[in-house]
């Protein structure tokens, strides 16, 4: 429960179409100057934004906690991660990442071997519409990874604030506006619109001057936005991260040697942030045997012992209660945890067991339930395990515990995991996504709309850049290397 | 005219839905084995395909000429380019391009700085549907760049043969089947379907086991396919190259010093292959002055002196005649070339002059006319020139002659060119696209559907790969580096 009774709730402002048009227009006005900005200017702004977040920590964390119930500890850590991320992109910009070129010298003679000099540079796409998520009020919101990577790439950003944390969004945006002013960056480089209605987002993504859309949210919301974007006269890329059920495969060697520790770690991961993570583990796949039986009992007990907090919004709580009730009442499911969901208590972690056949036959058992819920599927063979993974399909993550020995069965499971996932873990839990160069956060559909791109990590920047080949460029242009004009 | 009277025309076979399903199913059966293939196996097949084309040169070029009228010299050169391209991808595979990894070692400590070990690898998407183009019967057809890059990436290919050259498609496919057999590659790694009806292509791109679509063709055809792909239950990427009018900007310094040579080169580029190139120059932008007047006269004379040949299909000829008649009869256009289009002669190069205002006011004057046609737009200022480029919009190429001196006006023009193009040339003509690492063939919409990707050059391979981050991989898996399982 939060200590923030002193904070007055802020109503969600519905931006008018004129306000949205003005924000996009300001972004468009800023686009040329920001595209032409050098590394020092871009990294300067990114670092200034990181410092501004840190300087405002106390007030921002209190605001975030009052609106999200995620707890001051977690939110302060998330603020750290967000500042770290802004600085990581600043470092990448300083190292020349958005200005990197490929150079092919001319080769004398006739084609196909003979060729002119070619210098491949990258140019920013233009104004990016960025949809903030509810569940990471710092890291996937106003100054989160999408904003940081777009700014690093040289693109202005128009944020669509999430209506679950309007007060925090306003506060962070105000800090951003001040940072932009202090850095002398063009004022339209970060804009914000808000609204709880569908119309605000639709008007934004249909605006002809928006060049790309980044989104983190629900499957339903993402599909609806994609449909609007498909109806545009000029197509633009839609980078949507739509969540998944993130299977955990616990192979026998792992359970035999470290079952108890894994049960504890998994229970904590399922309950973390009240299960409100895109990477929250929603299904556990185990082979049928006595070790497994013990592990599942340990897991259920550890889940019963978890403390949770209020969910982000009452609507999410209602969805969770409905999803869990559907699972628990399913004729082929057997509940393993003891706790009951009651309106006067925070959500209680929920675990049910389902057989392979039932899981394969009932697609509704594979749907994401946003909150602390997990399904255990028991399999009798590697082949059945592979079928279960294939039925789950596109996932942000798959975790495979106990894959230390290279044998045919393990390789087959890993192959099945790679086929459906953007990230495959062999230790630890999927919640928590490191911000680094090798990170990839985006799996095959329906986990994300563009599985070849990532929304976390340094490669996220490349979503907002487009290559241009300069053929036989004059000396003054070639001398700029990848620096924009 | 061709020397191929001995060649019997081959009718276009309409693949049945069962045949299409069988081809996709064979590709799916081959997918796992081909994805797991090492560099030697992939490059071995690519080199075998190149050699097979060369060994069959005499017969293939005769077949291609009989069906396309493009001439034996050009077609033999195109076969060379196609073999060169297959070997260039083989070299890239041997150098490890599809197996390249990004590695981030673990960092001790708490997040965000602390992190697990991450190895980012790339995995093939799966079966690719590849739509052959009419205008490059070798280089953008059965064994063209899309097929070569997909095979290099580890993806099987189902070719949709172009109905304009069915005999050649069958002959090349037969050689490919033999090469696949000789190499011991899985039989389904290259499949082919054919048909002149819309239904064949639609059934192919809607097949649930097709993972990506590559297409080179008309705007209308591309838009129709995109619509079908958008209606799939599972979205897949559509890499469509839809052509453009490829503006040439001739700045005064170029015309003053080398006007006559440029007029000759441009006339040849406009008439080359009877204007049937995606990169054929369809609009020339010049400043109004006496030097320009002389240049345009020289260009018109050089165009009148060009020899052409029959177009690829009677339908294309009809479209060309209609487009040219619309231009020539336009009340604000003035015809500069002398030749008339008559049914008993090959197409005659056509040049018309249009003022800036009229060009900006009439979108129909900016539409691509596939064939030897060009429009001259005369401008009075750099700003007007920029407006003309902006009105043209997304283009595969923009050529800027006379940009050797860095001054504000030149920089402004180059900036406008970069904004709308995938490739900006500063010398030479846009027809002819070098196959190299720095190449980028794909401009902003409507030139291509995914402007961040290229259909020519080594980076084309990355359209068919998807990153996967392996977190804390076990030793045996990490030791494979990027080698697929």
Automatic annotation (TrEMBL), chains A, B:
Record has Membrane as a keyword: no
SUPFAM superfamilies: ALDH-like (SSF53720)
Record key words, sorted: Oxidoreductase
All residue ranges annotated as the Aldehyde dehydrogenase domain in the record: 12-412
Pfam families tied to this protein: Aldedh
Keyword set includes Oxidoreductase: yes
Entry superkingdom: Bacteria
Matches recorded under InterPro entries: Ald_DH/histidinol_DH, Ald_DH_C, Ald_DH_N, Aldehyde_DH_dom, Aldehyde_DH_Superfamily, ALDH_KGSADH
Protein name per Swiss-Prot or TrEMBL: Fatty aldehyde dehydrogenase
Organism in which the protein naturally occurs: Noviherbaspirillum aridicola
């Amino acid at each position: 429960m939060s200590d923030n009774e002193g904070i007055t709730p802020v109503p969600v402002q519905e931006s008018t179409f004129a306000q949205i048009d003005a924000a996009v227009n300001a972004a468009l006005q800023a686009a040329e100057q920001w595209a032409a900005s050098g590394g020092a200017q871009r990294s300067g702004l990114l670092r200034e934004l990181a410092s501004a977040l840190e300087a405002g920590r106390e007030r921002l964390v209190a605001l975030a906690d009052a609106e999200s119930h995620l707890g001051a500890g977690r939110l302060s850590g998330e603020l750290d991660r967000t500042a770290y991320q802004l600085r990581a992109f600043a470092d990448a910009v300083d190292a020349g990442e958005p200005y990197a070129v490929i150079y092919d010298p001319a080769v004398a003679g006739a084609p196909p071997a003979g060729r002119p000099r070619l210098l491949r540079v990258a140019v920013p796409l233009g104004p990016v519409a960025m949809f903030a998520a509810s569940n990471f009020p710092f890291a996937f919101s106003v100054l989160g990874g999408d904003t940081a990577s777009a700014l690093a790439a040289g693109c202005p950003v128009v944020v669509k604030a999430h209506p679950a944390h309007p007060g925090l969004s306003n506060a962070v945006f105000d800090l951003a506006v001040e940072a932009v002013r202090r850095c002398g960056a063009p004022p339209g480089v970060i804009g914000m619109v808000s609204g709880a209605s569908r119309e605000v987002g639709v008007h934004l993504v249909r605006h002809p001057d928006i060049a790309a859309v980044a989104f983190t949210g629900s499957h339903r919301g993402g599909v609806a936005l994609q449909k609007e974007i498909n109806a545009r006269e000029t197509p633009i890329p839609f980078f949507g991260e739509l969540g998944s059920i993130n299977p955990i495969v616990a192979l026998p060697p792992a359970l035999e040697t470290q079952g108890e520790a894994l049960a504890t770690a998994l229970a904590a991961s399922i309950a973390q942030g009240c299960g409100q993570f895109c990477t929250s583990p929603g299904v556990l796949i185990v082979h049928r045997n006595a070790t497994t039986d013990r592990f599942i009992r340990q897991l259920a007990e550890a889940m019963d012992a978890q403390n949770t907090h209020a969910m982000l919004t009452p609507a999410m709580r209602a969805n969770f209660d409905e999803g869990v009730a559907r699972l628990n009442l399913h004729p082929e499911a057997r509940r393993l945890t003891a706790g009951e969901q009651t309106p006067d208590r925070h959500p209680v972690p929920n675990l049910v067991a389902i057989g392979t056949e039932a899981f394969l036959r009932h697609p509704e058992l594979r749907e994401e339930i946003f909150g602390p819920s997990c399904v255990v599927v028991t399999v009798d063979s590697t082949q059945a395990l592979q079928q279960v993974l294939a039925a789950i399909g596109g996932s942000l993550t798959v975790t495979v515990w106990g894959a230390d020995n290279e044998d045919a069965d393990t390789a087959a499971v890993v192959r099945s995991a790679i086929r459906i996932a953007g990230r495959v873990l062999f230790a630890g839990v999927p919640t928590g996504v490191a911000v680094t160069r090798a990170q990839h956060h985006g799996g095959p559909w329906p986990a994300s709309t563009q599985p070849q791109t990532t929304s976390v990590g340094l490669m996220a920047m490349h979503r907002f850049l487009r290559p241009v080949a300069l053929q036989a460029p004059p000396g003054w242009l070639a001398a700029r290397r990848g620096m924009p004009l």
